[in-house]
Every structure is written in structure tokens, then in C-alpha cells.
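Internal QA ticket QA-208
Title: Verify multi-chain structure generation after dependency bump
Assignee: T.L.

Test input:
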Amino acid sequence: MEMLRTDFKNMLGDNVGIHGLTPAELQRLGRQASRHLKKIKEERTKGCHPFLDLPYQKGVAEMIKGIAGELRSWAKDFVVLGIGGSALGNIALHQALNPPYISGHENPRIHVIDTVDPDLFDGLLKSLDLRHTVFNVISKSGTTVETVAQFLIVRERLKDSLGNAYPKHIITITDPEDGALRRLAEREGYVQLFIPKGVGGRYSVLSPVGLLSAAVGGINIDELLMGAVEMDKSTLGGQQETVEENPAMLGACLQYLSYKRGRHITVIMPYSSALEAVGEWFCQLWAESLGKKSSLKGKVIHCGPTPVRALGPTDQHSQLQLYMEGPFDKVITFLAVEKFKSSVEIPQSPEADFRYLSGHTLAGLVEAERRGTELALTEAGRPSYTIYLPELSAFHVGGLLYMFQVQTALAGKLFGINPFDQPGVEAGKAHTSALLGKDKGTLQHAPN
Ligand code: PA5
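Actual output:
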């Protein structure tokens, strides 16, 4: 089954003139990227990059399906409490695969609350019937202030309304060994799931972090993981040596060369509302992984592309003017869906002005708008490329997310930085805790 295909002709000088890349430089960087991929594979055999092995955790998937099945028999609402990498993957999966107005009413409602906005949080809690609600508290560190605060509020409200029965309504996902939240979950007898050691938040969507809420929401997690396994073969399987054959290598090379040419902004623009949150998830993955002060050699480089999310066709009437005529500092990635679930025919119009639309479908209109935008950008010398997803299935979405993760790990190698840490985020977390009165000592040790 075809996983996805990338059309990058409009990244090349033949089509976009002086702002384009040459095939020779792409091939040259491809050879370098191929050596880095080999290194990633070697490191993987030594136990590094455990996120690459998440799709193969069959036992975990079975356990999650068991827990989800039981919850689905009584829960009406399933609330994820988490932030950053502990939330964005969940949102991406639900938006992509459980779109509004389509998903079945038999599924519990899934809410992912990645903020501590008091009005939103209080409003949500008041709207829930706590007897039929499960809270899934996700925090790898077990110390993130937003998640801890949410948890404390929820636990108190559950205790107040359900008494001793409350632990059944909380499921934690934490580091398997460390952290105050894990120890507390143990003491209070919650169901616990774990993020494997060495898997960072933004690389955890295919771990229990993303899988539990997906399974509760009725997403086929076996297919999701199967898509990731296929993508593993297509990117790290060893058969795809050239840049054109390997979607992760191609994406990393196009992005890296664009950055080196001064295009420091990378826009991800899905032409599918269902993929909008995949764009948001990608932005965190790309920004937090690649935005780094120091190189692996310890040199201060302050590198990193700035990801921007846009949505087609909506942003044609908003950001596109800037992309067409503003500074030449952007590269645009379109995400296109080849086969939408619905097509929706536009009826014959008696009005002459609108007759040109007759016989077309909304799916055709979306693709015409994407193509039209791509052509206009190309004519204006603005590089872009398109990743085509055959359809919005769990299999293809699993493959897409896995591909972006491999692309990010490889881009880290090209940039010469560590894409798996986030010292800047840690420093901000430490400052917040200190402002709230927590021991400031940790701040001195926060890497920067
Ligand atoms: O990707 C990351 O590592 C971060 O975005 C974290 O997921 C985020 O800061 C939340 O951290 P935690 O899961 O420890 O609560």
C-alpha cells in the first residue's frame, strides 16, 4: 500500500528560478543524510532513539485496548490533562481520525486540556458528570506545573463528589521510575501506564501517551501502529538510499537546504481541516527539537527554523498575501489528501455567474485551491512542496507522524544539534515554579 508521496518539483530552480535548489546540491546533501541515517540506525541498535521502536510494542497496544474497552463500557467523557508533547499528539490523532460531525456517538467524548485557563477549565469541569468521567493525567516528568495544578483540582472535585471511589477515575501516564506523580499514583492506587525510558514528550505520540485516548475514542490503534511500522521500513529499512526514495530524508534535506539559503521560516499548510492539528503537532516537534543555542560540539550557533502553521484554503484569505509578496524567507509544505471520506457535489446553478462550479465537488475545489496556490507561489519564485496522503486513515496518519519524527531526528544530525533535549523549556518551567514559591535551587542546574 502506498504510504505517501512527496512532489518537490517546485523546490527546484527549474521551476522557481534563483530561489530554488539545484538537483546537484540535493543529491550531495542526500549522500550526507544517508550517512547520518546509517548512524541513527547504528545508534538504534545500541538502545538509543527508543521512539523508533514504539510501533512494535504489541503487548502495550493489547493492554491499552483492554483498558480502553473497559472504560468505554461506562465512561461518557475522557479528559486528557497534559501539555506540550503530552497533549499535542492526542489532539492531532483525534482531529485527524475522529473529525467533528463524523465520529460515532457511541464513543466517549475526548477532551484534551493543554492549558490552565481558569474559565475553560472550570467550565469543562462543571459540564461533566464526574460519575462517568475519566481523567488521564499525562506527565513524563511528573512535575509540570500546569498538569500538576489540573490534577490537584480534579482529584479534589472527584473526592468531593465520589468519595472513596475516586481513584477509578484517574489514570496516570508517567516515567516508569521517576517523579512525584508516579509515586503518588502508586500510593493512591490509580491505573498507571508508562512512557518508555528515553522517549521524550514530542516523540511519544505512539506510546501510551497517544494510544490510550485514541483507543478510548474509537481509533484503530493497531492500524495506526502498522502505518508507523511501514514507514519505519520506508525510511530506516535500508532499501531507500537516495533522497528521492526516502520521504524523511527528502523532507530533512529540503528543509535544511532551504534554511541554509536563508528561508528560516517553514510553513506547514494542510489542505484538510482534519490535519490542522497535525500541523500544530509538527510545529512543536520541529521547534522544540531544532531550536538550539549550542551545537553538539559545544559551539554557540543559535540555530533553528521557525515553524508556522497555516490551513488551506482558510489562510489563502489571510496569510497567503505575505507568502506571495513578503520576504523570501519561507518554504511551504502543503499536506494534501488524495481521497477525502466525502466528496460532496456542488449542484447545478441556474445563475450564469456560478455555472462554472456545476459538476465539481468540494473535494475537487479544495485540491484546485491548493494547486492554484502552489502555481501562484511557483510563478512568484516561492519554493513549496507537497506531501500527498492517500487518505485519512489510521494507517496513513500513523505513517505520516512517524515520518515527521524520523525527519526531525535526521534534521538534528544535519544541523549538528541534539534534537531530543529542550533546555529552553526546562528553564522556563523552573522559573515558573520558582515564581510560585518552589525551591529556586533547580534553576541553577537547568541547562541553557
Ligand atoms: O516534548 C517535550 O518534551 C515537552 O513538550 C513536554 O512534553 C512538555 O513540556 C510536558 O512535559 P511533561 O510530560 O514532563 O509534563
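Spot checks passed. The chain has two domains: 5-42+223-423, 52-222.
Status: verified.
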